[in-house]
Structure formats: C-alpha cells, structure tokens
Design a protein that fits this description.
By secondary structure, this protein is an alpha/beta fold. The chain contains 3 helices and 7 strands, in the order E-H-H-E-E-E-E-H-E-E. The chain folds into 2 domains: 71 residues, Orthogonal Bundle (Helix Hairpins); 76 residues, Transcription elongation factor, GreA/GreB, C-terminal domain (Chitinase A, domain 3), CATH 3.10.50. Helix content is 39%, strand content 25%. Strands 5-4-3-7-6 form a 5-stranded mixed β-sheet.
Length: 158
Amino acid sequence: MAAISKTVSKAGYAKLQEELEYLITVKRREVAQKLKEARSFGDLSENAEYDEAKNEQAILESKINELELLISNATVVEDDDISVNEIGVGSIIKIKDIELDEIEDLQIVGSTESDPDNGKISDESPIGKAALKHKVGDIFEAETPAGLLKFEVIDISK
C-alpha cells in the first residue's frame, strides 16, 4: 500500500511527534504491565483480562504504525511558506458567506489538525478544499452537507 502524503503545519507536525513519543514511551509500558498482570491470572484460554490486554496492545501498535507512517510521509508547511496572496494550508482567512452576509475567520490546516469548533478546517473539507488557491476578492462555491454555499475572500493572513 502506497503512503499518502499529508500536509501539516509545523505545530501540527510537532503534535504528531509528541503523540507518537507518548504512545511509545508511556502507553506501551502500561499495556505491557496489563499483559503481565493478566498472565499471572493463570489459564490464558479463558482469561478475559488477557484477551482485553492483547486487543489493547494490537490497537496501540496499529496507532503507532499509523503515526509513524504519517510522520514519515508528512509535508510540513513552514511559516515562511504560507502565502498572504493565495489561500493554502496554514492560511488564516476571513471569508464572507454571501447568502447569510456573515463573516467567518478560519484557518486552513492539514486533515490531522482539523478542529472546526476552534476555526481550524481541513484542506480536505468542502470549504477548505474550495477555498484553496483563491485570492482576496475572489468568490468561490463549496458543496457542503448543508448545500451549495458561496463565499467571498475578505482577507488572507498567516
């Protein structure tokens, strides 16, 4: 299976590395301890605690592998690479919903950093994807679950 490169900000990359380090150094030790304790309960064929610990270990190792793959294939957007002329990953944008006449501040981030409640939308989300490459004054449309929305780019910053 070919790895897909994800675009992440410098902060997002650091967060991924932090999470991986935690899983390897802390969580692995915790799961190993649970396995050790479960083994001490005797017959492994009828040991629910052992089965649960083995499942937890498999999920943890899968998450570690996924993070390692993501980190090794990540494209990190440096702060200096963020344009104020054209929307890209890392851009902080002010857009106006034309129909509702509402202005919204958003940051376009990689999918691993998405946090819509805090104004961080993925470059793969309907609005994020539609906004990419647009400039101040441009009008773009985004096909969202709520229907087709029209936006005007008011400002781009980093």
